[in-house]
Amino acid sequence: MIKIQEYRPQSFIDFTKEENVQAYQDALKKVRAELVGRHYPMVINGERVDTAEKLTSLNPCDTNEVVGTTAKATIEDAERALQGAWTAFESWKKWDMDARARVLLKAAAILKRRRLEACALMSIEVGKNYAEADVEVAEAIDFLEYYARSAMKYSGFGSSETTWFEGEENGLMSIPLGVGVSISPWNFPCAIFIGMAAAPIVVGNCVIVKPAEDAGLIAGFMVDIMLEAGLPAGVLQFLPGVGKEIGEYLTTHAKTRFITFTGSRAVGLHINEVAAKVQPGQKWIKRVIMELGGKDGMIVDETADLDVAVTAAVQGAFGFNGQKCSAMSRLIVVDSVYDDVVNAFVKRAGALKVGTGEENANVTAVVNQMSFDKIKSYLEIAPDEGKVLLGGNATGEANGKQGYYVQPTIVGDVKRESRLAQEEIFGPVVSVIRARDWQDALDIANSTEYGLTGGVCSASRERLEQARAEFEVGNLYFNRKITGAIVGVQPFGGYNMSGTDSKAGGPDYLANFMQLKTVTERW
Ligand SMILES: NC(=O)c1ccc[n+]([C@@H]2O[C@H](COP(=O)([O-])OP(=O)(O)OC[C@H]3O[C@@H](n4cnc5c(N)ncnc54)[C@H](O)[C@@H]3O)[C@@H](O)[C@H]2O)c1
Ligand SMILES: N[C@@H](CCC=O)C(=O)O
Fold first, then answer.
1. Mean pLDDT of the chain
2. Pick from 302, 301, 297, 289: nearest CA to 263
3. Of 254, 456, 508, 522, which alpha carbon lies 20 to 30 A from 70's?
4. CA-closest residue to ligand 2 atom 2
């Protein structure tokens, strides 16, 4: 077994220190000189292969800027990648678990050295500010480090415990599934992208990775690191392309053994449906692991520390412009403290600066035109569904730059059953809902079809214990923000329509990508 230190999450960079801000700005210059304008081809069977058509990544904070391009895979490319991955599987599955884990550890080491480059690239490609980009790259390093260590417990015959039985040897072997497809979103294009690839790979599977259309460059950057770390040809097939085309082809394909998907509820449910249909020649029931959207609520009751609650609300709602599945999009406040909480929340959110990721603004542009239009459509109905207390406009401009800018928006007295209170908007828009009392607040919190993150700000032990038992979410937080789960510390995944609760960054996550074989030998 490899001798390595116990897993410890990465610490975050302190951007209150001038030298760290300077280092970030130097990285932005380096990335602008070396990565912006670059083209990433596909990687199939270890070869870089290009396509006639390309996908273009735009800077959302300055839509006049093309950040770079990737190949746009065709159905034929997808077929070749799938067949090639099955060939690679024949040898990769026989690699020693430690040897596979070593590739992840090496990739983590390279990423640590290139940490600020990865951050800077995301500031330009998806508009993350410094802290948001840093937290994400730290998470990507953590996934690699954590899954490498987790894999070791599945090494060898009898790696899972069975009960002793006289006269026999019994053992439970964990074996990889085969070739799967990993389809990722643009909002965590480094951490989720690499976490969903590294986990199946380290336990012996081969994976076709299909990044989101808006974030192909950071995905290409991460693939380069995995290859530099020594991943053999065909184990990780990089297939940038359009979800509705190659994503659809691969999820429907008879030779796809598993699908790991993170993205919207609509696409996730569609994939779940097509994957369930058995295709001619298909030998297995496809395993589907999916993490979807959220409409996450945080309750503030009359016993809460107001300052703690408002800080948690601002961080949870507006971090990366509310473009997190975990974002606090519903603030549920009990009537007796409603005015105090909401006034303080509006005041604090009103001080947030809107601008580019590169300028390290608090709130930057949302990712693309479709997202901008969708958020705008919710802002249009906001005055009918509540009282707009802050923002309310999709300006499309900030500090002279054209981009997908939306003002931080707070809508008060939103009705609990309204669209604003029930549908995932995925932008800097918060619905505040007035509850009669604590029990009413908990009922409102549980009144959506989602169940990803949730929070309670309260000093009442009794209420916290009730929420621990009754708040229906996969990740529940007390007296802090409801975003920012750390690998190994807060395993992440949702209930109900938020997903299959696979708990990325948790102790059992790798089991999603293995099948168990019980072997008995009578002596
Ligand atoms: N629960 C979580 O852990 C988690 C984490 C991040 C994001 N999300 C969710 O992701 C969503 C935002 O991401 P998005 O806009 O990229 O989501 P999306 O569903 O639009 O796209 C996700 C991926 O699916 C692909 N895709 C689209 N149609 C497809 C099809 N028919 N077949 C196969 N693949 C297809 C896309 O190309 C993309 O790579 C939000 O709903 C957010 O809550 C959830
Ligand atoms: N894991 C992240 C959210 C990922 C979804 O967008 C968090 O905990 O905030």
1. 97
2. 289
3. 254
4. 484
